[in-house]
Amino acid sequence: xxxxxxxxxxxxxxxxxxxxxxxxxxxxxxxxxxxxILTEVPTMAIDYAVIIENTSVLYDEILLHRLSFIPLKTDLxxxxxxxxxxxxxxxxxxxxxxxYLEVEAEEGSLLVTSSHLVPEDGRTFPAKENxxxxxxxxxxxxxxxxxxxxxxxxxxxxxxxxxxxxxKYFPIIEVNEQNCSLCEDCIERCPRKTLxxxxxxxxxxxxxxxxxxxxxxxxCPEGAIKxxxxxxxxxxxxxxxxxxxxxxxxxxxxEAxxxxxxELKRLLSSK
Length: 271
Ligand code: SF4
Ligand code: SF4
Ligand SMILES: [Zn+2]
What we know:
The protein has 2 domains: 4-40 and 163-238, Gyrase A, domain 2, CATH 3.30.1360; 43-159, RNA Polymerase Alpha Subunit, Chain A, domain 2, CATH 2.170.120.12. 21% of the residues lie in helices and 35% in strands.
């Protein structure tokens, strides 16, 4: 089993798109981190709305569904999860916030977007501008009050802070030089174009690009190339939807894992 001191992290990209390599963990821990990022990080999302007027082509339910998937900037210092709020989850200024939408297509057709949402306070607002909600034709109107609250991705996907979160094993390409005829068929077949001939050897130019598809193995007439992987080293990637900074997402996910482990320890020691 990996020792804590053997763990290392290499950041490849850490902006809207995040990519990092973690060495010294096992598949169980890698999957726990992935699941915690998707399901245990609180974010704000619109949960319900009071529709005052809707003459658009969308039913109220579909309109609300579209609103609920607009990522909202989340201030974790100011808001609590409803189940942890003093109000008991009935909704108060500590656990929910209002956003207003009042748009009418007066001149001609008009695309209603996230930019039309007017937040009640400056802390919770659409993380991205111009996300389409509904197209109005002349004379159509939408007036509503939307209520956003903190939630977790395990409840519904609208509270996930990332668009996708995945990891893969770190690839290892082994070439038996005795058998390799340098025909370059493997280079030709690689869909990621990540194999190259360097100093008369087949090398993996960029391990991050390799998808472990084994096409190179299949293409090799000599059986000289083998695709392997390091099962203690993982390449993680996710796309941040904008509710929280990427480092906070990872931090909160790890905190949630630690909290669960401590809770389990408490329960075991109380038996
Ligand atoms: S496993 Fe697939 S992606 Fe990786 S080097 Fe071989 S062909 Fe390319
Ligand atoms: S396909 Fe096989 S023999 Fe040809 S260059 Fe690649 S590893 Fe060598
Ligand atoms: Zn509350």
